[in-house]
Amino acid sequence: MMDNGSDFDDQWCDDEYSSEASEFDREGKIRHNQLHTIGYHEGREKGQKDAAQEGFVSGFKESVSAGYKWGLVGGVSSALACLPDGLKEKLVESVEARDKFQTLYTSIKSISKEDALGLYRGEILHNQSKGDSKAAEETSSSETLPSDPISRSSRLQGYSEELESLLQSSTIQVHSAVE
């Protein structure tokens, strides 16, 4: 009889063990799913933050460069406009070039900081929309059309290019690179 009792005890322990193992498996699967979901959400958040940071860094570099060029145009044209005529003639020999410097100064002076920022923002948005439509055109056509340099040139960029052109006809030297 003892054998029967012991078989019963062993069978009861096996049933209890298998029931507990089942419960542990079920809990393990639940925990795995929960942790997987948490990991997914954390990874997604981190990816979004990284992408936002990358976009900020890229945009910051572009805006610093544009701001530096804008300040350079304003500073050089303003400094030249404030000089006495005799000194202007020594720095910029051509009357035509001096007139262009004065015109550049007048144009720059007429644009407020807020308007310059608005122009910059508008150009960014225009370039983004142009990039989106260009990407759509490229996917729909195997040929790429040559881009028009005039349409690529922005109003703010135009001031910088005008200054660079005028500086070539003068003895004024300006370090215009942003590092």
Describe this structure in words.
The protein is mostly helical and 179 residues long. It is built from 6 helices and no strands. The N and C termini lie far apart (94 Å). InterPro entries: Yae1-like. Residues 128-157 are annotated as: Disordered. This is Essential protein Yae1 N-terminal domain-containing protein. It comes from Papaver nudicaule.
Write the layout of secondary structure elements.
Elements: H1 2-82, H2 85-91, H3 95-109, H4 113-140, H5 149-152, H6 155-168
List keywords for this structure.
179 residues; mainly alpha
Percent of residues in helices: over 70%
How many helical elements?
6
Overall 3D form: rod-shaped
- The strand count comes to 0
Structural class: mainly alpha
What portion of residues belong to β-strands?
Answer: under 5%
Radius of gyration: 35 Å
Uncertain segments: 138-153
Task: Kindly report the average pLDDT value.
Answer: 78
What are the secondary-structure elements, in order, as H or E? HHHHHH
Tell me about the largest β-sheet.
none
Distance from first to last alpha carbon: 94 Å
In short:
The chain has 179 residues and is an all-alpha fold.
